[in-house]
Amino acid sequence: MMFTGLLRCFMRPLTVAQVAATIAAAPIAHSAHAANDQSEGSGLPLPRFASLKSDHVNVRGGPNKDHDVAWVYTRPALPVEITAEYENWRRIRDRDGTEGWVYHSLLSGKRTAYVAKSKTKSDFVPLYESADRISPLRAVLEPGVLGNVKRCNGQWCRLTGNGFDGWIEQDRLWGVYPNEKID
Q1: How far lies 105's CA from each of 14, 31, 61, 62, 81, in Å?
Q2: Which pairing describes strands 48-52 and 89-93: parallel, antiparallel, or unpaired?
Q3: What residues are paired with 164 via a beta bridge?
Q4: What would the pLDDT profile of 88-147 be if each residue is shown by its tens digit?
Q5: Contact of 100 with 71, CB cutoff 8 Å
Q6: How many Å apart are CA 88 and CA 103, to the nearest integer?
């Protein structure tokens, strides 16, 4: 009986110390596990825009190579919207609304955008020297023109491409969100 009481006296502090150590280590172990576990994806906000890195991007019906290739993109730098993540796979949507899954390494964080069609404005979209409608006109772009997004201030984006460089109203682009700011 005395031995049991003595054992409890020594074991109780050890148990409390073990519990305290376990609790203190739990967030570290969870963080280390989370850093190695990609089942949640990248942790970046969704949805977000990216672009295709390659001139051959297989788009699959699901997030692994067991799914059939639904179609293939053959032009690099096209903007796509990432709508979901599963491990190293990203579900993307193109400007036509078509969705599929691609492997993460086939995407780039480089921002590109299409000049979008508008139902209420003319088909040709002015590109200005600065982010102001009264600044000199640099070019007139057709819907479907692809460019690199250099900056956006929430209302205007600086768009560059083959033979053009200027500012375009942000709501005339597909590949950036309304009011989004890009530095």
Answers
A1: 49, 24, 17, 16, 15
A2: unpaired
A3: 161
A4: 999 999 999 999 999 999 999 999 999 998 766 668 899 999 999 999 999 999 999 999
A5: yes
A6: 6
Neighbours of 44 (CB within 10 A): 10
Give the separation between CA 49 and CA 29, rounded to whole angstroms. Answer: 32
Q: Which two tokens stand for residue 182?
A: 């890009």
31 in Cβ contact with 43 (< 8 Å): no
Q: Which residues pair with 50 in a beta bridge?
A: 80
Separation between Cα atoms, residue 108 and residue 142, nearest integer Å: 25
Q: Tell me what the mean pLDDT of segment 10-24 comes to.
A: 39
The pLDDT assigned to 6 comes to: 40
**What are the backbone dihedrals phi and psi of residue 41, each rounded to the nearest 5 degrees, phi first?**
95, -155
- DSSP 8-class letter at 63: S
pTM: 0.76
Identify whether the C-beta of residue 157 lies closer than 8 Å to the C-beta of residue 182: yes
Domains of the chain, with CATH numbers?
48-110 (2.30.30.40), 113-182 (2.30.30.40)
pLDDT at 63 over 60: yes
What is the chain's alpha carbon radius of gyration, rounded to the nearest angstrom?
A: 26
The enclosing H or E element of 84 equals strand 79-86
